[in-house]
Amino acid sequence: MNGSDGEERVVHEVAMVVPKRVLEEEGDCVEFLVSELKKRGMVVDRVVGLADEFLKVAAPLETLGNAAEELHIRKPTRLGIDLPFEMQGSEAFIRQPDGSLFSWFERFRCYQHLIYGIVNCSRYDVTLKLDGREFCWVAGESLLRRLESEGVIKQMFPLHDEFKRKELLQTWALNWWNFTNQPIDQIYSYFGAKIGVYFSFLGMYTQWLIFPALLGFIMQMVDFGSLQFLALPIFFVSTILWAALFLQFWKRKNAALLARWQINCLVGPSQGYRFLGMEWSSLPFPKELIKNLGNERSKEKEAYQRYEWFAYRKRFRNDVLVIMSIICLQLPFELAYAHIFEIITSDIIKYVLTAIYLLIIQYLTRLGGKVSVKLINREINESVEYRANSLIYKVFGLYFMQTYIGIFYHVLLHRNFMTLRQVLIQRLIISQVFWTLMDGSLPYLKYSYRKYRARTKKKMEDGSSTGKIQIASRVEKEYFKPTYSASIGVELEDGLFDDSLELALQFGMIMMFACAFPLAFALAAVSNVMEIRTNALKLLVTLRRPLPRAAATIGAWLNIWQFLVVMSICTNSVLLVCLYDQEGKWKIEPGLAAILIMEHVLLLLKFGLSRLVPEEPAWVRASRVKNVTQAQDMYCKQLLRSISGELASLTKPEQEQQQDSERL
């Protein structure tokens, strides 16, 4: 259900793919599934495609509300308190920015609960059939799980809402005149908080790039002559302060977005008592620890501490394995590429070599990502998001080495600013072209190839070699589109991993070598304006609608950006030293001493700004404190009323006995 101003609009938001039936028979499992879905209050539309049949599922508001009530989804109320949803009191709950009662993440959870919640409640097994094949649906088993295991349900995926998709195409993807302005609230309502936060971050980053882009353009085009030794340090200091302030103000904007969207970061997908940010039901501790909770506190404390350090040790071991593999396997390959690049004289051959290098590295990094996923599966992490963050750190280590080790080689060994600038230009241009082709062309090629296979198969089945077969249904076109998945695998991350990785590598490139190539900030600003539109078109046109994710921040990427700012202080200081000490004397003269002092001052300023600039606006903090105070007052009053009711229900002898026990 989607709607605004109280108007209900039933939209098919989920599709299931089932095989085409050859025989019409009693007890058909697809017919049985459709009838069960309708009993649950859902609207089902059946569409026959070229090779498969599609079940489009929609849920009216009342059905979604009942599911949310069964799931005990906590939602913010007009009183400022998060309470479990109740359909009867739905008017008391705050609606989404688009006017709907539930967010896309909440709606998809309700769909999963409704569909997978169809269970055989009888005492007997039910025999189901499909084209002459029989199988049993045992008591207490989920119908969809059984159909998935039998191969009846091939896939289940979310569908695009055509009305909202076309609206976003006009106001966002095809609206080039707005540059960095985006309808963030509409993006959040349609794709969820994770994608909404990413595009908000990308838009703010591109807006903030205007200042260093103008400054870098002046530095690149104006010849300062003898003042170059003074202009570069000023530019370096300005970019570091700019980056530190940007990250702090992004934290403020992220907090404001979550407050506007009524998202409480402390509330997880399932509600209940929380322990260190986790649900009791999802704690990774052994069952015997939770079973004996509170029996012997000293032994219990010792067992938890032992288990905690055991988890840290496993994570540390995996991190060491990744670091050693980078040093022993990837470092020699990177140094060999950097050395060959240095001795080649032809610019065309250098571009070809860089393109081949990026293709090889892409394959090796995917292999490293799959190994990292296997290592993470052996770790003990509190939630899926923690595991995803662990994967991000490990894979970024691989990309960090492959992206920057060759540039460090040119800086430290050859100390040639012209060659370094040429390397940076080639990396920025080729990487931008590569990522653009990967984002735009690859999904379209996959989509075209799948349509071609389906049409060819249909022609072979019909025995006709002439005539063009059209795919008329939109749901079948959605089925042929690729998913929004990460290049390293779909286990823990979606396509935001690749987009965030591309952005982080770009930020590291322009920041860590700002003194060598100031114009890189202008190139990055232009690239990001195009990135916003191409990513929007990719999500709305060439890919399926992504699955919603609960995370409402950029997560581990913020720590990576903080790390890149610190690294840029060190690398730019080295660049200034190389520029100042061209003869390689490496003596602590006044100029070198000033650079070392400036480096330490910038490090102090970077960490000092994180304390001076609050991470959330005052109105957000005041609203949060107000909500907590109201919740405490309400719960205290309820507790007092319940205690008073219990005392009033006691008889007089029981009250006297209780008073005597209290005196004792």
UniProtKB/TrEMBL annotation:
The lineage of its organism: Eukaryota, Viridiplantae, Streptophyta, Embryophyta, Tracheophyta. It is found in: Membrane. The keyword Flavoprotein does not apply. It is a multi-pass membrane protein. One of its GO terms (cellular component) is membrane. Its main location: membrane. The chain crosses the membrane at residues 195-218, 230-250, 320-342, 348-365, 391-412, 424-445, 510-530, 550-579. Keywords: Membrane, Transmembrane, Transmembrane helix. Residues 187-625 form the Anoctamin transmembrane domain. InterPro entries: Anoctamin (IPR007632), Anoctamin_TM (IPR049452). The keyword DNA-binding does not apply. GO terms for molecular function: chloride channel activity. This is Anoctamin. It holds the Pfam family Anoctamin.
